[in-house]
Amino acid sequence: MVNAIKGLLISCDIPMAQFIINLNSSLPASQKFIIYKLDNTHLFVQPTVGEMIRSAISEFRDQNSYEKPA
Hints:
The chain is α+β, with helices and mostly antiparallel strands. The chain is 37% helix and 20% strand. The longest helix has 14 residues, at 50-63.
């Protein structure tokens, strides 16, 4: 018998994958979204968290970007 799970495949570089893994580990057990870590650059996650991951990455990038003073 075949077991199939619907999900979202994320392909990214190693630092971004570590950020997503860290985001997942900071959540309570009932809200963890990583289904399977395929390798260092590919993650299989629940399909409902795509927008949440995008917004967390966007917020992280905004916090870590340098704006030259006027």
